[in-house]
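Researcher: Can you fold this with magnesium ion in place?
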Amino acid sequence: FEGMTISELAKRTGQPISYLQYILVNVGEKIDSEFEPVSIDIAELVAMEVGVNVRRLHSNEGAELQPRPPVVTVMGHVDHGKTSLLDALRQTSVAAKEAGGITQHLGAFVVEMPSGASITFLDTPGHAAFSAMRARGAAVTDIVVLVVAADDGVMPQTLEAMAHAKAANVPIVVAINKCDKPAAEPERVKIQLGSEGLPLEEMGGDVQVVEVSAVTKSGLDKLEEALLLQAELMELKARVDGSAQAYVVEARLDRGRGPLATAIVKAGTLVSGQHVVVGAEWGRIRAIRNMVGKAMDMARPSMPIEIEGLKGLPMAGDDIIVVESEERARILSSGRKKKSERDRLRKIDEGRIETLEESQ
Ligand code: GDP
Ligand code: MG
């Protein structure tokens, strides 16, 4: 949509130029000529008004790409040790040690390795959060750690997690957990995974397997190495310059500070003071904090941050886009709110029609 003119928009949406001009006037936008390019925000707004679904494609054309840390989600069967493993990994971070532990609960954290490399972990384990975000177009996760308890083996949610990762085309690194237990049978787990169609490295495939214990913390360094190796193979890169494209991973309301959103920047740099639209909400970034609660001027790709200054509470998976003014932010947010209300009503309507047809 970038740099599109009214006349092109009319063609793309199948609406008369006069109607699009009417919409633009209504949102307070002055357009002198139908051949004058409009901004991407205005194009999105017009498309929403006429009921066309839009998704912003962020072009990295010509931009300088730099390596970025992988973003990792932990999945697996209940009680196989996802939460314990995340806690243990969190404690391995150099920054966490220096800061005397991570005080903030952010919904994501970074493990910095002595080598200087780092890994970002999403703190909400389980495939529910993973699929909810995917469904909303937020492809934040680069790698899935599939946790399987060595004394319990492959279970229903292990298979579900595998299916979700596969559907999303996200590579898996297997962590066989609880290897400290006398009943641990890691070899049996590997055979099970292999027979479920997971191509393990030691069987000639490309899925790495690491034996760990969240309790004794053995194998955590090997797991981190495996994740970095996987990331290297994927050549994860992001545009660092230019306006940010980010996603919300968690949001909460703080009594004193108002709505707070944990976000991960996918590309570009998010700068404190910028006007943003977050899902259907808007605001101006009053503060950016990192995972130890330190205020930052800006945030770069793969960095989990907490942002303050939104007017309402966004949802996990919402996109964060930077706009040029408060007015733009307001207009775009109200346009998105109207659209989601219309979509909701249409769904109810469709449901009613179906129910009617069924009862006939
Ligand atoms: P989740 O449901 O996957 O998040 O699992 P939890 O992290 O809550 O762990 C479930 C139970 O397994 C807890 O009682 C943990 O203490 C225990 N557990 C987790 N990891 C290990 C491990 O590596 N070794 C042993 N022995 N117990 C573990
Ligand atoms: Mg848990």
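Model: Folded with magnesium ion in place. The pocket of magnesium ion (ligand 2) is lined by residues 82-83, 125 (CB under 6 Å).
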